[in-house]
Amino acid sequence: MKLAMKLRTRLFLSISALITVALLGLLLGLVSVMQMAATQEALVRENFVTLDLGLKLRQTLGDQLMVMVNETPNPAAFESSRQRYLQLLDEGIAHEQAGNGDLYGFKQAKADYLDFLEAYSQAREPTQVLSGKEALTEKFNALRNGLITEHKRALDSINDTERRARERALLIAGLLGLVGLAVLIIGFVTAHAIARRFGAPIEALVQAADNIGQGNFEVTLPVSSAVEMNQLTKRFGIMAEALREHQAMNIDELLAGQQRLQAVLDSIDDGLLMIDRDGHLEHLNPVAQRQLGWDTDRLGQGLGTALERPELDEQLQLVLRGGTLERAPEDLSVEVDGESRLLTYSLTPVSHTQGHILGAVMVLHDVTEQRAFERVRSEFVLRASHELRTPVTGMHMAFGLFRERAKFPADSREADLLDTVNEEMQRLMQLINDLLNFSRYQNGLQKLTLAPCVIEDLLEQARARFAGASALKGIELLVEVQGPLPRLQVDQGQLDRVLDNLIDNALRHTAEGGLIRLQARRHGERVIISVEDNGEGIAYGQQGRIFEPFVQVGRKKGGAGLGLALCKEIVQLHGGRMGVYSRPGQGTQFYMALAV
């Protein structure tokens, strides 16, 4: 059984072996180079000494020849030169004995020199040393040739030393190359063994991780001889088992949650269409199937294609990008089993906890009966207003004539009753006019007279109209315009009516010492006009119905509750959108967004 070894230990031993081999090769190369350098230095020094002695001997011999050939030889100079020559020969012999003197050498040179001196002493004409074929000349030539031979030997020895040094250098380079090759082979084998030994378990773990990522937790984990790999494999197996249990638990919870959500969706009275991020239908509840006359074969289609309303795709893409619809969408008209139905709808994005949008929900509400009732009510109000306007106008005129002719004292009870009747008649006339105007807007009978309008002037004129009323109540009325605003094509008279209604409501619901701001600013391709106060505010539960007709909110009520509904109709007729922001006790802001 193999002993389990840590990966760090294996790597340390492998790298140590490589370093050891490399160091041995380097040490061998250094020793060889140093030995070769020392040997070469000794040989070169020996040969250079030989060359130096040879040159000195030849120079001294030349000096002796000059003395010999002189017609009047100088015995002292000759003796001095002879002693110098013998001294150099003795140095050469000593050097030769210390080194390797197998060849001609300085011993032979000394013998030749002594023979030459003997021949010189026996010569009949010493001055004729180099002429003829006498024994003296032969001895001289033998001596000279011996010195030349020794000189050549020294040169040949130097060349031979260089050659051997070159060969040894090549040998050392070859040995170092072999060591490098051995290190390379050992490193490759070691790396391959490590990669094979540890790469296979890692690849097996990668494959196991891929299987786990795909939901397959039945994986086979590798066994390695490395302690770290075994620990990693063990913990990987523990993690896989925990994930398997967690997935099983999550699947059960998801199924239960999906069933509960399905039950909730199916029990809702409104139709629900679930849409994915690509704009395709994912789910529709039974109510939506009944409202639209669909079955599940519509799933996967685009919203606009399924409902045959291409503009719905643009609205859906706006919602999926995180935007909001700037105005209330028109009712959907559908034919189901030969019956025409009207459906209101809303589009709401479905967002992840991290913020990105997963899809959208479309809520459908059947308003067929409600729209029929509203149409009947509108027609009734329009006809009743027309029918009431003529007699009430006549009554008001007759009462006015009666009041002018009646001469009651100003502080009498009769005068108070006449004033009360006159106020109620005016309120009744105003109510009839409001009903007529509201009916005209709802039935599309009201036409706009569009003209360029300067927003700054529009707000200043509105402030001027209510300057007196605000001063009487001790309320400050301000105009705040941010930056230059473009001129808008609007019906200024109708917008004056909207601003008058909003400012009147703000004055009625703001306490003495309060503040009302008339504001205007540009936001993208829209101009936002708002009336903001710091009054009593509007309860959250009432803000959703505040623009409905005949609805009054707040503690101070007046009129018939048609003012804000009429304002909304006017703004929508301009292609804009009206809304409200309010916090109870902190004030209210009504705004209208008009296209540039």
From TrEMBL:
<keyword id="KW-0067">ATP-binding</keyword>
<feature type="transmembrane region" description="Helical">
    <location>
        <begin position="169"/>
        <end position="189"/>
    </location>
</feature>
<dbReference type="InterPro" id="IPR031909">
    <property type="entry name" value="KinB_sensor_dom"/>
</dbReference>
<dbReference type="InterPro" id="IPR004358">
    <property type="entry name" value="Sig_transdc_His_kin-like_C"/>
</dbReference>
<keyword id="KW-0812">Transmembrane</keyword>
<keyword id="KW-0808">Transferase</keyword>
<dbReference type="InterPro" id="IPR005467">
    <property type="entry name" value="His_kinase_dom"/>
</dbReference>
<dbReference type="Pfam" id="PF00672">
    <property type="entry name" value="HAMP"/>
</dbReference>
<keyword id="KW-1003">Cell membrane</keyword>
<dbReference type="Pfam" id="PF02518">
    <property type="entry name" value="HATPase_c"/>
</dbReference>
<feature type="domain" description="HAMP">
    <location>
        <begin position="196"/>
        <end position="248"/>
    </location>
</feature>
<dbReference type="Pfam" id="PF16767">
    <property type="entry name" value="KinB_sensor"/>
</dbReference>
<dbReference type="GO" id="GO:0005524">
    <property type="term" value="F:ATP binding"/>
</dbReference>
<dbReference type="InterPro" id="IPR035965">
    <property type="entry name" value="PAS-like_dom_sf"/>
</dbReference>
<dbReference type="InterPro" id="IPR038320">
    <property type="entry name" value="KinB_N_sf"/>
</dbReference>
<dbReference type="Pfam" id="PF00512">
    <property type="entry name" value="HisKA"/>
</dbReference>
<dbReference type="InterPro" id="IPR003594">
    <property type="entry name" value="HATPase_dom"/>
</dbReference>
<dbReference type="InterPro" id="IPR036890">
    <property type="entry name" value="HATPase_C_sf"/>
</dbReference>
<feature type="domain" description="PAS">
    <location>
        <begin position="257"/>
        <end position="299"/>
    </location>
</feature>
<keyword id="KW-0597">Phosphoprotein</keyword>
<dbReference type="InterPro" id="IPR050980">
    <property type="entry name" value="2C_sensor_his_kinase"/>
</dbReference>
<dbReference type="InterPro" id="IPR000014">
    <property type="entry name" value="PAS"/>
</dbReference>
<dbReference type="InterPro" id="IPR013656">
    <property type="entry name" value="PAS_4"/>
</dbReference>
<keyword id="KW-1133">Transmembrane helix</keyword>
<feature type="domain" description="PAC">
    <location>
        <begin position="327"/>
        <end position="379"/>
    </location>
</feature>
<dbReference type="GO" id="GO:0000155">
    <property type="term" value="F:phosphorelay sensor kinase activity"/>
</dbReference>
<protein>
    <recommendedName>
        <fullName>histidine kinase</fullName>
        <ecNumber>2.7.13.3</ecNumber>
    </recommendedName>
</protein>
<keyword id="KW-0418">Kinase</keyword>
<dbReference type="InterPro" id="IPR003661">
    <property type="entry name" value="HisK_dim/P_dom"/>
</dbReference>
<keyword id="KW-0547">Nucleotide-binding</keyword>
<feature type="domain" description="Histidine kinase">
    <location>
        <begin position="383"/>
        <end position="596"/>
    </location>
</feature>
<dbReference type="GO" id="GO:0005886">
    <property type="term" value="C:plasma membrane"/>
</dbReference>
<keyword id="KW-0472">Membrane</keyword>
<dbReference type="InterPro" id="IPR003660">
    <property type="entry name" value="HAMP_dom"/>
</dbReference>
<dbReference type="InterPro" id="IPR000700">
    <property type="entry name" value="PAS-assoc_C"/>
</dbReference>
<dbReference type="Pfam" id="PF08448">
    <property type="entry name" value="PAS_4"/>
</dbReference>
<dbReference type="InterPro" id="IPR036097">
    <property type="entry name" value="HisK_dim/P_sf"/>
</dbReference>
